[in-house]
Amino acid sequence: MIKVGRPILPSISALRALEALDRLGSASAVAEEMALTQGAISRQLQTLETLLGADLVRRDRKRLMLTKAGQDYVQQIRPALSQIAQAALKLHVAPVGGTINLAILPTFGMRWLVPRLPDFARLHPDVTINMSTRLRPFNFASEPFDAALHFGEPDWPGTDRLLLQMERVLPVCAPELLPNGTPAAPKDLLKFPLLHIQTRPKAWQEWFAQMGVDAPHPLPGTVHDQFSTINQAALHGLGVALIPNYVVEQDLATGKLIAAFPKAVDTLGSYYLVWPREKSENHSLRQFRHWLASQAQTEDALPR
To answer: Which residues does 20 contact at the CB level (< 8 Å), separation at least 6?
Structure first.
């Protein structure tokens, strides 16, 4: 008869500390995130190593770093920790109609999705939508999300998608940047400081190409991480920005911004709702998808 030993079950707190050390890179950052002392973090990691019988952490002049074995172990436990956190959140909130944990792009989410959500809340008052912003790519297996708003061609394996909007961009600037009026030709914009967005590094090159202008590469100018920051830079007269219509619609209407050239163009990317196939039959997510389908590509003022 073969005896089966008790399973090795490390404490959740120790696993969280190890995962956070891999993600944050320092014991002090881990201690701050977990509201513990660095000494407590170090003891938890030592206890975990003793329990598992493996060297997971390298200690170099009081600095803690993961070994190769520690890094491999974190990759295996991270999805499980995310699932535990997601399950706990659902139990804590426990809405009658279910919960959707949604990753959103900050500008598109705030400018396009949020103004529409009151309609969804009216139709489905029992469904709760939790939103978190994500600018960088992530893995559904390691993040507690049911779906995500995504720009570009979705490349997540095992996912389905719903096209929401194509993106249409327009060069804009503060009125004082063009005291003599709109330039006569698109190539004249090369004389002005250009504002670039980090997530669309080739946007200006593509715009000039569609205008038939042979622009230098790379184009000079300042780089901004979000549309909200590049929009503010344009409002303060720091240069000409290439921004989607839905972002600058209100500023154009009030005259705070003007079109630096009246030619908007379609970009090569589009906005999608993306979700893992294994969650396709989730009742709340299915209701949200069907509602979003009624909102997609319907308004002339939004990017196409």
So the answer is: 29, 30, 33, 34
Q: Which domains, from first to last, does the chain contain?
A: 12-81 (1.10.10.10), 91-166+269-295 (3.40.190.10), 168-266 (3.40.190.10)
Closest CA to 45 of 78, 14, 73, 83: 14
Q: Is 35 left (phi over 0), alpha (psi -120 to 50) or beta?
A: left
Q: Look up residue 252 and give its two tokens.
A: 């154009």
Per-residue model confidence as pLDDT tens digits over 247-261 = 888 899 999 999 999
Question: What mean pLDDT comes out for the span 58-69?
Answer: 86
pLDDT tens-digit map of 84-140? 877 776 666 555 558 899 999 888 898 889 999 999 999 999 999 999 888 777 788
For 43-75, give one letter per residue: b (16+ CB within 10 A) or e: ebbeebbeeeeeebbeeeeeebebeeebeebbe
State which amino acid sits at residue 250.
Answer: Q
Phi/psi at 125 (5° precision) = -65, -15
* Cβ atoms within 10 Å, residue 203: 23
Q: What's the pTM value of the predicted model, to 2 decimals?
A: 0.59
- The secondary structure of 123-137 as a DSSP string is H-TT-EEEEEE--S-
